[in-house]
TrEMBL record:
Cofactor(s) essential for the protein: Zn(2+)
Top-rank EC class of the record's enzyme: transferase
Active-site residues per Swiss-Prot or TrEMBL entry: H106
Species assigned in the record: Roseivivax jejudonensis
Family: Belongs to the sirtuin family. Class III subfamily.
Localization per Swiss-Prot or TrEMBL: Cytoplasm
Binding site for Zn(2+): C114, C117, C133, C136
Name of the molecule in the record: NAD-dependent protein deacylase
Amino acid sequence: MRDGKIVILTGAGISAESGLATFRDAGGLWEHVRLEDVATPEAFARNPDTVHAFYNMRRAQAAAAAPNAAHAALARLQAAHPDTVIVTQNVDALHERAGATVIHMHGALAGALCAACDHRWAAPPEMDTTTACPACQHPAARPDVVWFGEMPYHMETIAGHLETADLFVAIGTSGQVYPAAGFVAEARRAGARTLELNLAASDVSAAFDAHEVGPASTIVPAWVHDMLAG
């Protein structure tokens, strides 16, 4: 195992083989529902029942899913090489259930957020417009996920990790959503080597030093094996 800090960004592609839909691929979530109707603050203000129903469905799907070989491999890498930071765009808990520690830049389905006082707590399986905040009692619960138009979480922490990375790896990302799509450029400016592991080329593939193409459950364990054997 080579020394150095590894920063890994994961996207929806790493959870696809666990049965969780991606967003923009054929058959993805945005083919079945308009993001403007379920994934913006304006949508929640306009029709909270629809937004809650969508995230109740996603919460149930995520709870029923199991980590796949890619999640397990990254957990092994992190255990063997503690200077491994995993940042995820995903709102499921499959990394944690595989044994990894992750930074959720887009929040988590398992969390609830009070739109009135910003209190956070563990989300019940289903929420609706009557779900009250346990801190202020206001019926203003929303999913603790980052919607379009909102600032992702932990950006200063992530920027610090990118500035000190020796290797930056993106796994299962589309390269279409910023600021995450810009992480490879930030890492390269800091002098990190860069690697993309993906089912197909992303919108920012040209920015990476190296690429591996294939299903995450195949190429991620193979890469981790090589890293741990090197």
